[in-house]
Amino acid sequence: MDPKLKKTKNSSSNSANSPDSTHSSFPFPDEVLERVLSFLHSHKDRSSVSLVCKDWYNAERWTRTKLFIGNCYSVSPEIVARRFPRIKSVTLKGKPRFSDFNLVPQHWGADVHSWLVVFAKVYPFLEELRLKRMTLNDESLKFLATSFPGFKALSLLSCEGFSTDGLKAIATHCKNLTELDIQENGMDDLGGGWLSCFSENCSSLEVLNFASLNSEVSFDALEKLVRRCKSLRILKVNKSITLDQLQQLLVLAPQLIELGTGSFQQELTPLQYEGLGIAFSNCKNLQTLSGFWEDTSLHLPVLYAACPSLTFLNLSYATLRSGELAKIVAHSPNIRRLWVLDTVGDKGLEAVGSSCPFLEELRVFPADPFEQDLHHGVTEAGFLAVSHGCRKLHYVLYFCRQMTNAAVATIVQNCPDFTHFRLCIMNPGERDYLTNEPMDEAFGAVVKTCTNLQRLALSGLLTDLTFEYIGKYAKNLEALSVAFAGSSDGGMQCVLQGCPKLRKLEIRDCPFGNAALLSGIEKYETMRSLWMSACNVTMSACKLLAKEMPRLNVEVMRDEGSDESQADKVYIYRTVAGPRRDAPPFVVTL
Amino acid sequence: MAMSSEESCSYPEESELELGLGLSLGGGGANSKTKPSPAAVEATMAGHWGQYARILTAKDFRSVVSPKECSSSSSSSSSMTKTNNNPSCGVKRTAEPSSPPGRSGASQVVGWPPLRNYRIQSLVNHAKSPKTEEITPAIDKCKNKTTIVDKTNCGSNLNRNVAKEKGLLKTSLFVKVNMDRIPIGRKVDLSAHSCYETLSQTLDDMFKLSAVVGARRSNAEEQVLKTRRSRLLNGSSEFVLTYEDKEGDWMLVGDVPWEMFLISVKRLRIMRTAEANGFGKCTLAYALSCL
């Protein structure tokens, strides 16, 4: 039996020890099986369950209420609708991840509307929709708002094509809205009027995140909303909300678990300052803080009272210096996740190392990604310091301008439990600045030491050796991101042949060609997707791949003015839905 | 927009090898930008950020003797003889680059460093204080908290100027400027400006010199370019300053912070609102009235 099954089904687990799958009739009636399976929530577990036998497949499909689709083109809405009759929550991801960095042209696809149309027919009681890298317009939002009377939760991350008018429709029509989470989308902010569209009867909001919208909203409307939504636990406001307005909100909602501040810059009278401090200290449940727009450190002390209970501190938009960060983390010993800008420098990270023994995740973003000045930002020293003090670190995203192989080796020795290691040395092809060698040994150390590694992002000057290491050691690797690396086809081949759990591979600007592409011909069906851009792949190889593997979609985008035979951008993914019907003219499905 | 793209490439006549892959940004593929003629490209090679990304190869990675040397190495592209966008140029990445480039790296590559647009735009909007000072906590508190970068105020763009002096800033950013009904276009170096004001002024001077422009138009242009925002936005002037962005869309100049504009601009166009070339009169007027 699937061992995962034993773990997750904590109540009646006899079915785990049931007769093997060759029995077509099952000792338990369907209702019992369904009841048992309804405790399964992870979609991975459910997928495993559905493969056991036909009875289980059916029981599972009737009890699944949450749908997770990692690639919207891997399946069609119709197929989904046929299989799962009782879906209440849908998570859909669309474009390849590199679209976040403008590597995917506009109008590529991933439009949610066709999904909504099907859902409206089949799942009229849909409650939640979570979209990532999808395209949707205001019409779709309006359709969503008016087609599902019980709709509760909308989350949009890195989506595009809509505007605040669409949000107006949601606020107006979704009477039972519990969640509105709008993050980092390519949307048109036409004004803050949408917030005023919530009806005065709306008191069900639990999550409201409009931090990434810039327009001013009516504070009056917001205040009233917060006042009547007693269950509000996550509130992330935008820059238009001032500090004293924030204080008023905090007084109304001391039950908040997550808070995103507005503009943290304002002249405060001593009385206001004190009031703010008190407001923060009254938020006993606060676990997450974010926001901190505007460059200020003046008012940070008001936070100190709230810091001890914090587990996640997102300062990644605050240009803090080392001293300021040091003070905050000194008050925040229970921090598990910390996001900062590299303005805090190595010294700031040293302070993190000494103050945050429970730190599990660190992300350091560059404040000046395009400036080349080596004197700013963080170096290997900062990362080392954190690794010395934070032995539980398992997730890192680190942007820096210099690194050494030795430092990384030490870091992973200190913290061998890395599951996510994303190192971005910002100059492509940068060497170890002390030894002048490639950074092969650094990533070699990572994969050798961190046996639980699931996600890896490479940078620096790398030869095929890095990929040999990955293929040899990274047996749990699921996602690999490669840029400006490798010397020959052999590199990519090592990875394709050596990493059994690889699901997502994204490659840009590497010297991998047809041989590499074709070496994975049997692997791609076990993966979600492969992206290769600016490599050495030609159309003929892609055509061959497409011919051999009918259950893969092989999509090629050619760049302006490039050779007919070159496949500049290749996106390959497994699908049961066949070639997509909405591909724009510049996407050629082979 | 994330990153700016790179100058076009050439073959290694010199010791420098660059490859242009025609790697379009954002909407390049969708909006079929026409490839500039070889002559035009060559003319703009001295730092023109066309729509081509650059694969950094061995020769890019000269040893860092001084930032200045590196910057001049890139700007010496004007002496390159040939543009070649043939992506099968073979030499993607030769084996042993020497030390990393001091300045020609990250910022000239599409989509690198990998940061979402939202974050980049936020960073650009951030107030920047001079980083060259040693800042102690005491000074921190006294720091002027209101130095939000005013995008139309050139004075606050300290970092850029400092970086430029150090030779760290990328070299010239020449873009074409065309004006409706004037067949001969001009080129302007955007990197010589740090805000919209001076750019407007320069364009104003440039086009007033044109023989075709009459006195009346010069005045209108003057008005347009001096009170750039209000005039252009309410469409009351005879001219509108627009630019083509990386995605091939024509946008009104002035909406986004200067730095972001630099990243996304490909070329400029001064359009006449009365009879805009290539647009219906109604279309442009309608578009402007929607702003």
Overview of this protein structure:
Helix content of chain A is 32%, strand content 17%. Chain A contains 20 helices and 23 strands. In chain B, the strands form two sheets. A five-stranded mixed sheet of chain B has the order 4-3-7-5-6. In chain B, strands 1-2 form a two-stranded antiparallel ribbon. In chain B, helix 7 packs across helix 8 (228-234). Chains A and B meet through loops of A and helix 3 and helix 4 of B. Chain B: It comes from Olea europaea subsp. europaea. Chain B: InterPro entries: AUX/IAA_dom, AUX_IAA, PB1-like.
What coarse outline of chain B follows from CA principal-axis ratios? globular
Please give the most extensive interface between any two protein chains, plus how many residues each contributes. A-B, 77 and 73 residues
Query: How do the SSEs of chain B run, as a string of H and E?
Result: EHEHHHHEEHHHEEHEH
Overall mean confidence score, pLDDT of chain A:
91
Give the strand content of chain B: 5-15%
Shape designation of chain A = globular
Which class of secondary structure composition applies to the elements of chain B? alpha+beta
Number of helices of chain B: 10
Structural class of chain A: alpha/beta
Largest sheet of chain B at a glance?
A: 5 strands, mixed
Mean pLDDT of chain B comes to 53
| Poorly predicted sequence stretches spanning 5 or more consecutive residues of chain A | 1-23
Radius of gyration of chain A: 25 Å
DSSP strand (E) fraction of chain A?
Answer: 15-25%
C-alpha termini separation of chain B: 21 Å
SSE blueprint and pairings:
The complex is a heterodimer of chains A (590) and B (291).
Chain A: H1 3-8, H2 30-37, H3 43-50, H4 54-63, E1 66-69, H5 77-83, E2 89-93, H6 113-122, E3 128-132, H7 138-147, E4 153-157, E5 160-163, H8 164-173, E6 179-183, E7 186-188, E8 207-209, H9 219-228, E9 234-236, H10 243-252, E10 258-260, H11 270-281, E11 288-290, E12 312-314, H12 322-330, E13 337-341, H13 345-355, E14 361-365, H14 380-389, E15 395-400, H15 405-414, E16 420-425, H16 440-449, E17 455-457, H17 464-473, E18 479-483, H18 489-498, E19 504-508, H19 514-519, E20 529-533, H20 539-548, E21 552-557, E22 569-574, E23 587-589
Parallel strand pairs in A: 1-2, 2-3, 3-4, 4-6, 5-7, 6-8, 8-9, 9-10, 10-11, 11-12, 12-13, 13-14, 14-15, 15-16, 16-17, 17-18, 18-19, 19-20
Antiparallel strand pairs in A: 20-22, 21-22, 21-23
Helix pairs in contact in A: 2-4, 6-7, 7-8, 9-10, 10-11, 12-13, 13-14, 14-15, 15-16, 16-17, 17-18
Chain B: E1 19-20, H1 38-43, E2 54-55, H2 67-75, H3 117-125, H4 137-142, H5 158-165, E3 174-179, E4 182-189, H6 196-208, H7 215-226, H8 228-234, E5 239-245, E6 250-252, H9 258-264, E7 265-272, H10 281-289
Parallel strand pairs in B: 3-7
Antiparallel strand pairs in B: 1-2, 3-4, 5-6, 5-7
Helix pairs in contact in B: 6-7, 7-8
